[in-house]
Specification:
Radius of gyration: 18 Å
Number of strands: 0
Distance between the termini: 44 Å
Strand content: under 5%
CATH architecture of the largest domain: Orthogonal Bundle
Oligomer: single chain
CATH topology of the largest domain: Hypothetical Protein Yqey, Chain: A, domain1
Low-confidence stretches: none
Structural class: mainly alpha
Order of helices and strands: HHHHHHH
Number of domains: 2
CATH class of the largest domain: Mainly Alpha
Shape: globular
Mean pLDDT: 85
Helix content: over 70%
Number of helices: 7
Largest sheet: none
């Protein structure tokens, strides 16, 4: 629960420094984690991977919201969402670059002997645990399609 301890410590600091956005965002994180624990129905605390999943979902939701606000010409709201993304990402592992992701995908393609698009589901199943919390699933899907098309 190292992440939760960091979040709690940072929440105290942000409250003392009266950083309203960070305080609000950290409270949202704590609430989302608590909701995930409740959804687990008393089967113990969440593991670090589960918390990473919650944080990744929060980032994804905010990216989608920011896109919608941009389309609606609401730069102020899009900017707020992007600031929240930056705060949430402080608690996620360093995000993979496209090149790093491609290397992991290529290595994973070799493992199960994937030959084409038919095995994409199998490949995603093998790959997602390796990159969980380090990149967006939509990007992984897109890169797999591109790399498999190059294979022929």
């Amino acid at each position: 629960m190292e992440i939760l301890k960091r979040i709690n410590d940072d929440l105290v600091v942000s409250m003392k420094s009266k950083d309203e956005l960070k305080t609000t965002t950290l409270r949202m994180i704590k609430s989302a984690v608590k909701n995930a624990e409740i959804a687990k129905r008393g089967k113990g605390d969440l593991a670090e991977d589960d918390i990473m999943g919650v944080l990744s979902t929060m980032v994804k939701q905010r990216k989608e919201s920011a896109e919608q606000y941009e389309k609606a010409a609401r730069k102020d709201l899009a900017e707020k969402e992007n600031k929240e993304i930056a705060i949430i990402q402080e608690y996620l592992p360093k995000q993979l670059t496209i090149e790093e992701l491609d290397e992991i995908i290529k290595a994973t393609i070799q493992e199960p002997g994937v030959t084409g698009m038919k095995e994409m589901g199998k490949l995603m199943k093998e790959l997602m645990p390796k990159v969980k919390g380090k990149t967006d699933g939509k990007l992984v899907n897109q890169r797999i399609k591109e790399l498999l098309e190059k294979l022929g």
